[in-house]
Prior knowledge:
Helices cover about 0% and strands about 60% of the residues. By secondary structure, the protein is mostly beta strands.
Amino acid sequence: xxxxxxxxxxxxxxxxxxxxxxxxxxxxxxxxxxxxxxxxxxxxxxxxxxxxxxxxxxxxxxxxxxxxxxxxxxxxxxxxxxxxxxxxxxxxxxxxxxxxxxxxxxxxxxx
Length: 111
């Protein structure tokens, strides 16, 4: 199974806010794709260690577009535009599971 790497995609949309619509299509950006995530056993920590990253915005800018309302008035609408995307470290957590240090425990017996 192949996963696309984290990247920026652009989709032309009409912005709608409180019944008012953008005059033209707006190139709205979003982040999507795969980033590195893995789990390994650490004998030093005596537990499973997790490294997780997620695909998200690295830089943004504010953009303003003109919207036309049903009563023919015009209003400015400001939104956050994504300029670049990348993989950022995040906390790994399984829903409903608490971290359990010492998943594998060693025991010594005396003879």
